[in-house]
Structure formats: C-alpha cells, structure tokens
C-alpha cells in the first residue's frame, strides 16, 4: 500500500504556522533532566496520537482500509508501549528530583485510517531519529541504556508500520540522527497548546518548510523538489538579509549522510527548487534549508526540516 508523495507531504506540512512554540535561533545547552523531559514530550505526542486513533477507528475500519489482522492488535501493543514509555520517563524524572513536563495539547492532520498509518510511519521515524541524535548528550550511563532500550523498540514500531504500508522496513543500513532543534521543529507542527507551568525546554522551532505536492514517488538521482514559498518566507523572516543573491542550500539527511545541493529561485521569486535529488540511501529522508553549503548546524538553518519518502 504505497502512498504517493502528495499524500505523505499533506500530512506533515501546514500545521506549524499555528504552533504556539516560540521560534528563536540558539544552540541549546542541555543536561540529562532536560533530555529526559524532551523525550517525555515526544512520548506524550506518540501516546496521544495512538490513543486518538484507537478511539476513532475500529478494528473493522482498519481491515476495510487494507490493514488485515493482526494489524489492529499490534497497534494496541504499540499504544501500550508508548504509555509505558511515558510512565517510565515521568517516574525517572521524579526520582531524580526533576519536575516532569505535563502533556501538551496536540492536533494531528490524519482524517482516516490510511492517513493515520501514513503519519504513524513518519512519527515513528522521527522518534528513532530523536533518540539517536540525543544519545551523545546523555551523561548518565543508566539513562543512556534506558534511552537505547526505548530507541530499539521505536525502531521496531517504525519497521512494522513501514512494512504494513508496502515500504521497505529497513531501507538503509544506518538510521538518521537529528539534533534537538531539528526534532523539536517537526514536533512543533502538531503542538497547539503548552501547559503554563511546564518547565521550559531550551529548544527552538525553525520556520516550517513545505514541499510542493507530487503525484510521483521521489527517486534519488532524478526527481526535482520544489520548496513552496520558501524564498518569499526566507526574505520576510530574515528582514531582507536573505536576497536573490544569497546562496542557499537544501541539505538532505539520510542515514549518516548529509548532502548539500544549492537551490535556485523559481515561480515569481516565491519558491526554491532543486532539479535533482542527490544520490542517497532510500527511505524516510529529511531536508532543510541552510545558508551554508558545508555546515548544517542550527545557526545556519533557514527553514525545516521536513520529510520525504525516497
């Protein structure tokens, strides 16, 4: 049950403009308490996502949508795993004397079983990338082991859902690490409210990045990509410091690869575009826009990241 990029892109773009998460540029300074609360925030998101779907769609609706048994039963197991992760992280934070964040309010764009499963694949992939990217910053070895234990479970969730969609369950020999701000930017697309007394987290949401919908599958080495409205948005948000003469690069993340491709301006000075996706491993790929052609660190990010299936 492969979905075109028109379907997948519609699920992960367009919500972040309404997000209450502040947009600011800084490199976060973290400790283990902050990292555990970051993980808890993501686990709340996943738990809520699965709980809402199970409340909204019956086992028969999953069968009718092309997800035969035991998919629904396995989905209940995934939901229960996310509940367990929330409880574990909340307990660990409290035991360490750190106030756990409370659950945020989320909004998800899925409207039926098929769109829910498509978005589940994206969210599980982001979850894997989040734990992988955070691992190097965890100081306490016990916390690192626990995070690794959660990471491997999230990876199995991701592989199972990808397989159920007709996608490769293990498309690359390496998973893709993302840093705190890159993950937080993607999570912010689904956040509509934050409890006023939540302990603040030192992360930022970069400006959102939208891809022009395509009726075709993206293919490395051949497919073009258009970043809708990205040049106009970059001009506005940079207060004019980004101009038509400013070199801007699309940075593709796949496994341990980061590939930079200079973009060009198109469509009435509104969009950025590249003519060919660079050669890379297939699967869930992340892309952001950077002011640098060699360094995709937070200080150089213009917008993104977002995802595409290659």
Q: How is this fold's topology laid out?
A:
Blueprint: H1 5-12, H2 32-56, H3 59-64, H4 71-95, E1 105-106, H5 113-134, H6 141-164, H7 180-188, E2 191-193, E3 225-227, H8 230-237, E4 249-254, E5 257-262, E6 264-266, E7 271-274, E8 284-290, E9 301-309
Antiparallel strand pairs: 1-2, 3-7, 4-5, 4-8, 6-7, 8-9
Enumerate the spans where pLDDT stays under 50 for 5 or more consecutive residues: 14-24
Mean pLDDT, as a whole number? 91
Rough outline: globular
Which sequence of strands runs across the widest sheet?
5-4-8-9
Helix content: 40-55%
Q: Give a quick account of the main beta sheet: strands, pairing sense, barrel closure.
A: 4 strands, antiparallel
Structural class per helix/strand content? alpha+beta
List keywords for this structure.
single chain, 310 residues, alpha+beta, four-stranded antiparallel sheet, three-stranded antiparallel sheet, 8 helices, globular
Describe this structure in words.
The protein is an alpha+beta fold and 310 residues long. 41% of the residues lie in helices and 14% in strands. It has eight helices and nine strands. It has helices at 5-12, 32-56, 59-64, 71-95, 113-134, 141-164, 180-188, 230-237; strands spanning 105-106, 191-193, 225-227, 249-254, 257-262, 264-266, 271-274, 284-290, 301-309. A four-stranded antiparallel beta sheet has the order 5-4-8-9. Strands 3-7-6 form a three-stranded antiparallel beta sheet. Strand 4 (249-254) and strand 5 (257-262) form a beta hairpin. The longest helix has 25 residues, at 32-56. The model is unreliable at 14-24 (pLDDT under 50).
């Amino acid at each position: 049950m492969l979905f075109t990029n028109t379907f997948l892109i519609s699920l992960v773009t367009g919500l972040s403009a309404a997000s209450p998460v502040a947009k600011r540029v800084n490199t976060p300074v973290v400790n283990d308490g902050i990292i555990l609360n970051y993980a808890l925030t993501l686990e709340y998101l996943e738990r809520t996502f699965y709980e809402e779907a199970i409340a909204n769609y019956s086992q028969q609706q999953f069968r009718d949508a092309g997800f035969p048994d035991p998919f629904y039963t396995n989905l209940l197991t995934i939901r229960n795993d996310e509940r367990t992760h929330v409880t574990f992280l909340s307990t660990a934070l409290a035991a360490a004397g750190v106030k756990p964040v409370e659950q945020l309010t989320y909004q998800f764009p899925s409207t039926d079983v098929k769109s829910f499963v498509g978005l589940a694949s994206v969210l599980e992939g982001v979850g894997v990338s989040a734990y992988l990217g955070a691992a190097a910053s965890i100081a306490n070895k016990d916390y690192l082991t626990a995070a690794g234990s959660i990471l491997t479970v999230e990876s199995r969730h991701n592989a199972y859902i990808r397989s159920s969609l007709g996608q490769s369950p293990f498309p690359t020999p390496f998973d893709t690490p993302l840093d705190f701000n890159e993950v937080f930017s993607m999570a912010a697309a689904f956040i509509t409210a934050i409890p006023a007394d939540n302990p603040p987290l030192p992360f930022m949401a970069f400006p959102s990045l939208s891809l022009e919908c395509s009726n075709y599958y993206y293919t490395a080495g051949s497919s073009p990509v258009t970043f809708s409205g990205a040049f106009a948005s970059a001009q506005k948000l940079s207060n004019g410091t980004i101009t038509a003469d400013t070199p801007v690069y699309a940075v593709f993340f796949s496994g341990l690869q980061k590939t930079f491709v200079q973009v060009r301006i198109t469509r009435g000075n509104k969009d950025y575009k590249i003519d060919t996706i660079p050669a890379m491993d297939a699967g869930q790929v992340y892309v952001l826009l950077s002011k640098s052609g060699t360094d995709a660190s937070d200080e150089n990010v213009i917008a993104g990241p977002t995802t595409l299936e290659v």
